[in-house]
Write a structure and sequence with these properties.
Length: 458
């Protein structure tokens, strides 16, 4: 049976998958739009720091007011309605809850909620790529020890990239490069929340009408979100990021096999088995022909002359040698597709992409000259953007992960374009997120030795 047939059977039996959503922003709202329409799925609860905002989000996506009038999780479970609260821990602990969708975008909150899911044995869909890039390798190990599934969010690009990579490898093809498209110019690294809408071309009316967060959207534009997502892909798919970070080459879908092949074969890649993000605009601002701004891709190599001939016979677009080709998906539907993750977890016992190791890291990098005494303002802010690095290089340099560049005060000057290091900031070792990340760094340095016995969530 297909997933939709299995979901329909659950609906018929009156035993739907019960889902809790933490964070009713753009991604959470998109899922809520479809979760309420999917047979066999029951959004039993929503947790958001602003309950009124969460209720308004449900109305905006087409829910009736009656649906969110439940006064408790027990009532919501009994009546098929939804309880809205500001207590995320109560949501996770609610009796009968099956899957938690973590969509806060806060790295510290993501770590805390994932660990609570381990304690209460709730599967978790980690929409929060900020948390995954910061600490996903250790979170995934805790989840495995707790017997729960820790999954990427289908509809978000890391899950869709992981799907293409899995397709290629299952077909016996070596993945050369995997990644996504975006709109990129070098100047975007300096973009701030004050300049972001002009770069996007959004009108004031569009911004007012939508649930748009300028700092979040700026993190997409300034390269931070791309770096976070490529770190997640590298860590899930066993790919090694380029040493110099993402190059963001201008590239359309027809040029993927030619450009995203190793330098020795005429391409731009430093090595096989890496990640890269392609830009939908040329460096002079002209649009790329047949761009992949909203999509994902993987390039792969024919393992034999026979397969090379098959590429040609079946019309695959290849490089000039005929050896390298690509598969891509031109669009992603963000939270509208998230139900696929929930169904895959509950009906197949499979994640839609999941962190496995610590191959890529994202380091806070100065947007401008930073001075001692300044307080960092995190992803998409005015001060730093995230740069992708191999994890080993990041740890060797003592790089401060972008996911922790929130409210830390600089004790040294950092020049524009330079990475911020742990030694450049004052930090509290007892802070939960900092402690968790430092624990992961220490474990990685020793090759995860002894990690089979790490402590359970408590």
């Amino acid at each position: 049976m297909s997933l939709s047939q299995k979901l329909a059977a659950l609906a018929e039996a009156g035993t739907p998958i019960r889902v809790g959503v933490i964070g009713a922003g753009k991604f959470g709202s998109m899922f809520l739009s479809q979760g309420a329409r999917t047979p066999g799925m029951h959004v039993m609860g929503i947790a958001d720091l602003d309950v009124a905002r969460a209720c308004a989000a449900t109305m905006r996506v087409g829910w009736s007011m009656d649906r969110t009038q439940a006064r408790s999780f027990a009532e919501a479970r009994r009546d098929g309605t939804t309880f809205v609260t500001d207590d995320a821990e109560a949501l996770i602990a609610a009796e009968g809850m099956d899957v938690i969708v973590e969509a806060t975008g806060s790295p510290a909150a993501g770590i805390r909620h994932a660990m609570l899911c381990c304690r209460h044995k709730r599967h978790v869909v980690m929409v929060n790529v900020e948390a995954d890039a910061l600490a996903g390798p250790l979170l995934a190990r805790h989840a495995a020890a707790a017997g729960i599934i820790y999954s990427f969010a289908y509809g978000d690009q890391p899950a869709l990239i992981a799907e293409i990579v899995d397709w290629a490898r299952t077909a016996g093809l070596e993945v050369i490069c995997a990644g996504k498209g975006t709109k990129y110019l070098p100047a975007y690294h300096a973009s701030t929340p004050a300049t972001v809408w002009g770069h996007y071309g959004f009108s004031e009316e569009q911004v007012i009408a939508g649930d748009f967060n300028p700092q979040m959207f700026n993190s997409f534009l300034d390269g931070t979100k791309s770096a976070l997502e490529m770190a997640a892909v590298a860590n899930a798919c066993g790919l090694t990021p380029p040493a110099d970070g993402l190059a963001f080459p201008a590239c359309g879908v027809d040029d993927l096999p030619e450009l995203l092949r190793p330098r020795g074969a005429g391409g731009i890649l430093p090595h096989k088995g890496t990640v890269e993000v392609v830009s939908s605009v040329e460096r002079d601002g002209r649009p790329v022909f047949r761009d992949l701004r909203w999509g994902v891709y993987a390039t792969f190599e024919a393992p034999s002359e026979y397969v090379r001939q098959c590429f040609s016979q079946y019309g695959l677009k290849t490089d000039s040698s005929g050896r390298y080709s690509a598969m891509y998906k031109p669009y992603h539907l963000i939270g509208l597709e998230l139900g696929f993750s929930i169904a895959s977890i509950m009906l197949r016992g499979e994640a839609t992409g999941s962190t496995r190791d610590f191959a890529g890291d994202v380091v806070a990098t100065a947007k401008r000259d930073l001075q001692p005494g300044e307080r960092l303002d995190g992803e998409g802010g005015y001060m730093v953007y995230g740069k992708l690095m191999p994890a080993q290089a990041s740890l060797a340099a003592g790089g401060l992960p972008i996911g922790l560049a929130h409210n830390l005060v600089l004790n040294r000057a950092v020049a524009a374009g330079r990475p911020v290091r742990w030694d450049d900031v004052a930090f509290d070792e007892t802070n939960e997120a900092i402690r968790f990340r430092r624990e992961m760094e220490a474990a990685f340095r020793t090759g995860w030795a002894g990690m089979g016995g790490y402590r359970q969530a408590s």
